[in-house]
Design goal:
- By secondary structure, the protein is mainly beta.
- 8% of the residues lie in helices and 46% in strands.
- It folds into two domains: 3-119, no CATH class; 130-451, YVTN repeat-like/Quinoprotein amine dehydrogenase (Methylamine Dehydrogenase, Chain H), CATH 2.130.10.10.
- The strands form nine sheets. The protein has a four-stranded antiparallel beta sheet with strand order 3-2-5-6, with no helix packed on it. A four-stranded antiparallel beta sheet has the order 8-35-34-33, with no helix packed on it. Strands 9-10-11-12 form a four-stranded antiparallel beta sheet, with no helix packed on it.
- Strand 27 (329-334) and strand 28 form a beta hairpin.
- It starts with a helix and ends with a helix.
Length: 454
């Protein structure tokens, strides 16, 4: 390959990730990047060094070999943790440790002089980016449509924390009275957020730009959890866990039009894109039901006797996916025929699910085995399992922390975030293209099972 073309490929690749954290971790060595000359005279002449800054590099686990190359092309080799004085500008960081995927990052010393890298076990196809602590019991994580923030609902706190996902820096705390929040969703333009609160059975409407609460809407049910917007965003559906019904809320007036009786202990909700039907997950008996929103007649499509928890549908509304927490199984529903099929078996106690934008990959957070109570740590770590929605093949698996619960995929499909409910932690990962996952021989699916035991 001509040198000019190699340089063009490298520059293009770096531009795509320069604004996201300090560049995406690659699960495999990138030979194109490695082939670029570190002492290009033109680059040095165009950006002559002036001052120096210290860069601290830490890896978890420690003891990785590290190679640092500054803008002059000068290289430094050593082991983590390391602290090195380098010329101002962008520094190339390469980390390697036996048993772990190699990592490459680009660090701009003007923005970041402390780099912590979580090394991924060898074979993992997704790549660790950031980890940070949250308030108590982070229940859900959610990217707004533009992916610029990460909202974390605190079931054990007083509302919502908003973070910069590129750095883990807290941007705002949104207090919702004396209680926490369960779920949060956004309008398509990202201007409004709606958060549910169990104790008050209500919904808070929040200006997502100013983080100010605009109004609190009474749902009139009991112990409200999951919420969903109608396609035209004029109606909000709110699942009431204890009163076994769904509040249909008119958002113009902020009042409940009706409460729709439904399956035992309703949780997951999915309104179809045509606005005609509403799918419901029943936790109490492991049911998947569908409600005709014109007649309000209801049909149960599946009853497992387990605990159906969450629902998500593809962009066209052709397929809906559900997870049964008691059975550790995910299901696929063809909305054209209402036929349900078992898609895959996953790890114990699956919680939140989400789809890649192309609908090819289902991401499933799994809490792992409980302790004597679900508020107490159990004998297993949580996990995130990736499922091919066509074949049901498991594509990759991440070992999480204590009770991996909240989960979200960014709208562009590049980033995964999940929370460890009892660990008060959020983690983010870079998602490779579907073809990388499909050709990855299952990533760490087989190996991760042994790592779940504490």
């Amino acid at each position: 390959m001509p040198a000019r073309r190699v340089l063009a490929v490298w520059v293009t690749g770096m531009a795509l990730v320069a604004g996201l954290s300090s560049c995406a971790t690659l699960p495999r060595r990138n030979d194109v990047t490695a082939a670029v000359s570190r002492t290009d005279p033109a680059a040095v002449a165009a950006r002559p060094p002036s001052t120096k800054h210290s860069l601290s590099v830490k890896s978890i686990p420690a003891g990785a070999t590290v190679r640092l190359v500054d803008v002059t092309g000068q290289a430094w080799d050593g082991r983590t943790p390391a602290k090195v004085s380098l010329y101002a500008g962008t520094v190339s960081v390469e980390l390697e440790r036996p048993g772990y995927n190699p990592v490459r990052r680009e660090v701009d010393l003007a923005r970041n002089r402390n780099l912590t890298v979580w090394l991924d076990p060898e074979g993992l196809l997704l790549a660790s980016q950031r980890r940070w602590s949250t308030g108590p019991a982070p229940k859900q994580v959610a990217y707004p449509p533009d992916g610029s923030q990460l909202w974390v609902t605190l079931l054990g706190g007083h509302g919502i924390q908003v973070f910069d996902p590129a750095t883990g820096t807290e941007l705002e705390q949104i207090r919702l009275g004396a209680h926490g929040a369960v779920e949060v969703i956004f309008t398509a333009d990202g201007r409004l957020a709606y958060a549910s609160q169990m104790e008050t059975a209500s919904v808070y409407e929040i200006d997502a730009r100013t983080f100010k609460v605009k109004r609190q809407i009474a749902g009139e049910g009991s112990w409200s959890k999951v919420l969903a917007l109608s396609p035209d965003e004029r109606t909000l559906y709110l699942a009431n866990w204890v009163s076994d019904d769904i509040s249909e809320i008119d958002l113009r007036s902020g009042t409940v039009r009706r409460r729709i009786p439904t399956v035992d202990t309703p949780r997951g909700l999915y309104p179809t894109p045509d606005g005609r039907r509403l799918f419901v997950a029943g936790y109490g008996r492991g049911e998947i039901a569908v409600i005709d929103l014109n007649s309000y007649r209801q049909k149960v499509l599946l009853r497992t006797g387990g605990a159906m928890r969450h629902l998500v549908g593809d962009a066209k509304g052709e397929m809906v996916y559900a997870d049964d927490m008691a059975e550790a199984v995910v299901y696929a529903v063809d909305t054209g025929t209402d036929q349900v099929r078992k898609l895959a078996t996953v790890d114990k106690n699956p919680n939140t699910i989400d789809l890649s934008p192309d609908g090819r990959v289902l991401f499933v957070s799994c809490r792992g085995r409980n302790g004597s109570d679900y508020y107490l740590p159990g004998p297993e770590w949580g996990s995130v399992v990736l499922v091919d929605t066509r074949s049901g093949t498991l594509l990759d698996a991440i070992v999480g922390g204590d009770q991996t619960t909240g989960l979200d995929v960014s709208a562009d499909g590049q980033w995964l975030a999940f929370s460890d409910f009892l660990g008060d932690t959020v983690r983010t990962y870079a998602i490779p293209p579907y073809r990388t996952l499909a050709d990855g021989d299952g990533g760490r699916v087989e190996e991760h099972r042994a790592d779940l035991q504490k």
